[in-house]
Amino acid sequence: MLDAMLTADDVNSDVELQDFCVAMMFAGHDTTLSTMQSVLYWLSKQPAVIAERRQEVLAEWDGSSQLIRETLGKVPKAKPKVRAFLQEVWTPPVTIINRNLEEEAVIDGYLVPKGWTVSFAAALVGQKVEQPSEFRMGRYLDPSGHFVDQTFEPWIYGVFGGGTRMCMGYKFARDEMLVFMVQLLRHFSFTVTSAQAIKFPLYYWRVSGTFFSNGV
Prior knowledge:
Elements: H1 2-7, H2 14-45, H3 47-60, H4 69-78, H5 81-89, E1 97-100, E2 105-107, E3 110-112, E4 117-120, H6 170-187, E5 188-198, E6 204-213
Antiparallel strand pairs: 1-4, 2-3, 5-6
Organism: Polarella glacialis (Dinoflagellate)
Cofactor: heme
Keywords: Heme, Iron, Metal-binding, Monooxygenase, Oxidoreductase
């Protein structure tokens, strides 16, 4: 992406290039880091979930062989609750998304003039699900226990956005989080000593704690 930006013919200024680099860092690093902390927070609140997810990972990976895509594919398919857990706790990290209209648009039947700024509260999308304040992995499992992927349901699961501006790195981000979960559950135990709900500029749980090696 950076190579494409540096060689593009339509880059208007160094300021635009700087803005792009900041956006790349923000989207690819800060959002993943905040999500990892939220995962630790929710795991600490659900001891039974930790035990169950750990058994799922132990069944699919010995902890010493190379962690390859085939291994990652086994975890969500054979043990779908790992992916359901991630989808339940993975909230949109960016609270509000603003867009300046370069031309007038009709939104929900209202004509919005050119030049106006439209704000979308991405962090509130998850409030549309049933009982949003409760931890319920089951909402992402069908009656037979199979994982229900909501990635492309932006009005229910807006983590990666939707439409033509959907996050182009969503597959990479999902793999990152799955690797994190697999490594964490296979090799470590942890305690969370403090947690603080952060709502701006990113929406997540900031945690402090201690990690312990499981010795495996």
